[in-house]
Amino acid sequence: MKIKITLILCLVLGIISSYAQELAKVVEDGKVRYIDTSGSYVLQTDFKKAASFSNGLAAAQDGKKWGFIDTSGKWAIEPQYDKVKAFNSGLALVFKDDQWNYIKTSGEVLEVDPPDKYFDFEEGVALYRRRKTYSRTDP
């Protein structure tokens, strides 16, 4: 029985660690760089402002607009937003044209009734308030 539990625990930990963040953000000489788990530089950018990777994408600022880069440093979602929040469970909050929206990692806007307030993600669920009613959006 102990062997089965140990094997299951090892399997679960292996799966979790395979999804763990592989790149860490560092700032050197005013520019954002990313290192791997061995400490080697794997992505050197010219960005002065960028975030850590989440769901395979990192927010990065180009001029005054924000977009999202992939782990190769290419734009996965072109800079077009005034403000962004990190992806969580496949969704991110973005601010454009005086309006907050949720987007998917593909850049597709998630269609929800226009809310009064968006909330950050918690436990894989995005909450929003419309009038006095709270609703949730599952990715």
**How many DSSP H or I helices?**
1
Biggest sheet features: 3 strands, antiparallel
Percent helix, as a range, is: 10-25%
State the end-to-end CA separation. Answer: 37 Å
What's the mean pLDDT score?
80
Beta-strand level of the residues, as a percent range? 35-45%
Shape: elongated
Query: How many β-strand stretches?
Result: 12
Count of structural domains: 1
Q: Give the class from helix and strand content and strand pairing.
A: mainly beta
Low-confidence stretches: 9-20
The sequence of SSEs as H and E is HEEEEEEEEEEEE
Oligomer: single chain
Radius of gyration: 18 Å
The main sheet orders its strands as: 1-2-3
Please describe what this structure looks like.
The structure is a single chain. The protein is mainly beta and 139 residues long. It has one domain (21-137). It is 12% helix and 45% strand. It has one helix at 2-18; strands at 24-28, 31-35, 41-44, 58-62, 65-69, 75-81, 83-84, 91-96, 99-104, 117-122, 125-130, 133-137. A three-stranded antiparallel sheet has the order 1-2-3, with no helix packed on it. A three-stranded antiparallel sheet has the order 4-5-6, with no helix packed on it. The longest helix has 17 residues, at 2-18. It is elongated.
